[in-house]
Structures are given as structure tokens and as C-alpha cells.
Design brief:
By secondary structure, the chain is of the alpha/beta class. It has 15 helices and 15 strands.
């Protein structure tokens, strides 16, 4: 395209994405205040907090000039504990994947076994033998899944836990329409002495908003995940627990193991987002779920195949696309095909069969806009209208929602 420098590329990206309708469930937008903190002087700074052994001497910190970084970490941790009603929180993980690595390292040893949702069932691929689990020396097994219900097969899952006797069970998935039945899984874990972990990467904002269960008070030992999906902070990770022993193990899994320096500008931004979540989280989460259900229903009514209508479609920010029906209508590589076609109309989705309402909700859209979005999707994919024509109406709809809401801005 003839760009001369990175600034011109970023400006082009920003201008384009400000006109798009983004329905990717793993993305969101930050408030202006939270975003501005990413450009603070803390982006340059480095620290190694805590007592460490350095050249035979015990030092409190290898760097000086950190007094305000210590304060911002304390503020972010306190906000996280309040929002999630947790006794312990760690805000230093630099991504959701790193928070998963820390969590597994803190609760398992090499040679241990872990059970999680299979990637084929919408699970996170990092828990496979050839990915993160294998890197940590863990043997992974899959939790039985009910494709029709878009949820675990809880009876079979409990039997599988009792048979495998894993050292850890991980709830949560990348495609997650309904909150897990934590109680039954907890009882099965207790029978065999398993730790129960919860990868809440996609749903932390809904948990914070009291719309997707209360894992830490329903038997989960350790809750962790990404901070930039339904939780509308910067890209990063977090761990939360009420167990002091697990918290100590998390701290021991950090420096010179899974991370070196934390990103302090990100922690400042996360503190701001968590304070916004504390104030606005319940209203935001309720609107996210209402929008997801309304979008799913609207798509269903125009004949676009979506999942779990008999269960009310969804209790999360996600709408599941019915793969078999979509494939029969749009071809074998259906999700990729429709994603590329919608992108030509500046409607952004992923290629794995999910739609998400977290970003459009953060921009202030409600049920009426979900109907409008469903109509635009239908015109492109069902009616076969030119994406170039639909794009103009996408821009008109998007132009009325330029700044984040559910924030102090």
C-alpha cells in the first residue's frame, strides 16, 4: 500500500477499524482513560520486585525509582480482589496464556495429568499435549463434551475424572455459551484429590459483573485468564484465588520462571479498567448478555444457522454458529469463507464459528442495534448483496457509536 513508516500504518488501521463493526468475542475496547495510561512513562520502566538473592546479598529491589510502580500494582491488586471477591490476586502475568502457564506451574508438577475441554469442542488449544501442557511436562486428557448442548457432558465428565484421577481439572473454553456446573465437577475432583482450575479468559468481565456464576465461591481453587475480552482492560493476564498456599505457589512461579519484568503501564491501565468494572460491571455484563441473545435470536429469525435456540441461545457474550448447517449453505471452509466476505463489508468476525457482543456493547449498542447487525449480516450472506453496498450502511451504523461507555469518561 506504499506506507512510509509505522505511524502511517497505524493511522490507517485506526481509521479503518473505527468504521467497522467488530464481532470478535476475544476483543474489546478500553476507555480513553485506561488507554491513555499505556502511553505513560511506565512503558519505559523496569523492576524486579520482592526479596531476591543477588551476588550473595539480599536486596529488596534490583532497581530504584519504582515507588509509583509499587503503588499502581497495589491499586490494581486491591481492585481485582474487590471486583472478584478474592483474597489474593496477581496482576503481573503479561498475557492470558502466561497466566495459564503460571496457574498450571503453581498447581502441577512435571509428570502430572490435567483434564480440559478439547480444542475440537471449543477448548483452548494450549492444554494439548503438544502445546503448553507438553511444554510443562503434563499429560492432558479431554473432558467429555455434549456438542448439541454446547456444554460439558457432566455425567460423563465426572466419571472420566474419577477414572483418570487427574492432578488438575481446567474448566472454561474459548467457545463458551453457558456457565459450567461447577458443583458437580468439584465433587468429582474431591473424590480423587484434583485441583479445580477455571480459565475465565473469555468470561472474566461477565463473572466480574455477576452474570456468569461466582467460581471462587463455587469450589474453584484458582481463577485466571485474559484481561482484554469481556474484561475490558489492556491485553494481559491475571490470577485470582482464595487459597493462600496456591497464591504462594503462583508468586513462586513468576520471576525468572514465567516472566521477568512485568509491564507497568499495562498494570496501571488494568487498575483503571478494574475500577470501571467495579462501578459499571453489572450493567455492562447484563447488556452484553442481552445483546448476545438478541443478536442470536435475530439471526435465527432471518434464517441464519445459530446454536442452542432451545436453551435461549447463550448466557455469555458469544453466539455460536451452527457449523454443519452453515457448511451446507456456504461450503466446506464455511467460517473462513463467510468471515472474508463479511470483512469486505467491514463486519469483523473470527473464522472459528463465534460472534461476540462485548465490543459493540462497550460502544453503547443495545438490542435495536443487534437487529440492525443481523440484518446487515443477512444481506451479505443470505441475500447475496454486494458487500460494497452494505459497507456504507455499516459505516453509518458505526458512526453513532464512537466512544466507550460503562466508564468514567
Amino acid at each position: 500500500m506504499g506506507f512510509e513508516d509505522p505511524l502511517s500504518i497505524v493511522e490507517a488501521h485506526d481509521g479503518w477499524r473505527s468504521r467497522c463493526l467488530n464481532l470478535i468475542p476475544s476483543e474489546n475496547v478500553m476507555s480513553h482513560a485506561a488507554r491513555s495510561l499505556l502511553a505513560s512513562d511506565m512503558v519505559h520502566r523496569y523492576t524486579l520486585p520482592g526479596i531476591r538473592e543477588m551476588d550473595g546479598r539480599r536486596v529488596e529491589n534490583a532497581y530504584r525509582g519504582t515507588r509509583y510502580m509499587d503503588e499502581v500494582e497495589s491499586m490494581a491488586g486491591s481492585a481485582a480482589r474487590r471486583v472478584f471477591d478474592a483474597k489474593y490476586a496477581c496482576v503481573r502475568p503479561i498475557s492470558g496464556h502466561i497466566s495459564a502457564m503460571i496457574s498450571l506451574s503453581a498447581t502441577c508438577e512435571r509428570g502430572d495429568t490435567v483434564m480440559a475441554v478439547d480444542f475440537a469442542d471449543g477448548g483452548y488449544p494450549g492444554y494439548s499435549d503438544d502445546q503448553l501442557s507438553g511444554l510443562l511436562g503434563l499429560k492432558s486428557y479431554h473432558l467429555p463434551y455434549d456438542q448439541e448442548a454446547c456444554d460439558l457432558d457432566y455425567e460423563q465428565a465426572c466419571l472420566a475424572i474419577e477414572e483418570v484421577e487427574p492432578d488438575a481439572v481446567v474448566l472454561g473454553a474459548s467457545k463458551m455459551l453457558f456457565p459450567p456446573d461447577t458443583g458437580g465437577i468439584r465433587r468429582a475432583c474431591d473424590e480423587v484429590g484434583s485441583r479445580l482450575l477455571y480459565d475465565g479468559s473469555h468470561v472474566l468481565g461477565l463473572i466480574a459483573g455477576r452474570r456468569f456464576g461466582d467460581p471462587l465461591h463455587e469450589g474453584v481453587d484458582l481463577l485466571f485468564g485474559s484481561t482484554h475480552k469481556t474484561l475490558f482492560g489492556p491485553q494481559g493476564g491475571i490470577t485470582l484465588t482464595n487459597d493462600e498456599t496456591i497464591d504462594s505457589a503462583v508468586e513462586s512461579s513468576l520471576h525468572w520462571r514465567t516472566i521477568d519484568n512485568a509491564h507497568w503501564n499495562r498494570i496501571a491501565s488494568l487498575a483503571q479498567a478494574l475500577m470501571e468494572m467495579e462501578e459499571f460491571g453489572p450493567d455492562y455484563a447484563a447488556q452484553v448478555v442481552s445483546n448476545a441473545r438478541h443478536l442470536a435470536r435475530s439471526l435465527d429469525e432471518i434464517g441464519f444457522p445459530v446454536q442452542c435456540g432451545e436453551r435461549g441461545y447463550t448466557d455469555s457474550h458469544q453466539v455460536g454458529l451452527a457449523g454443519g448447517e452453515v457448511a451446507s449453505r456456504f461450503g466446506e471452509s464455511s467460517f473462513e469463507v463467510i468471515a472474508k466476505r463479511l470483512e469486505r463489508a467491514d463486519i469483523i468476525i473470527d473464522c472459528v464459528g463465534r460472534l461476540g457482543t462485548c465490543e459493540v456493547t462497550r460502544l453503547g449498542m443495545k438490542e435495536a442495534e443487534m437487529e440492525a447487525i443481523a440484518e446487515l449480516v443477512g444481506r451479505v450472506l443470505i441475500d447475496g448483496e454486494s458487500p460494497d453496498r452494505v459497507r456504507e450502511e455499516v459505516h453509518r451504523l458505526r458512526s453513532g457509536f464512537e466512544s466507550p461507555v460503562f466508564c468514567f469518561d
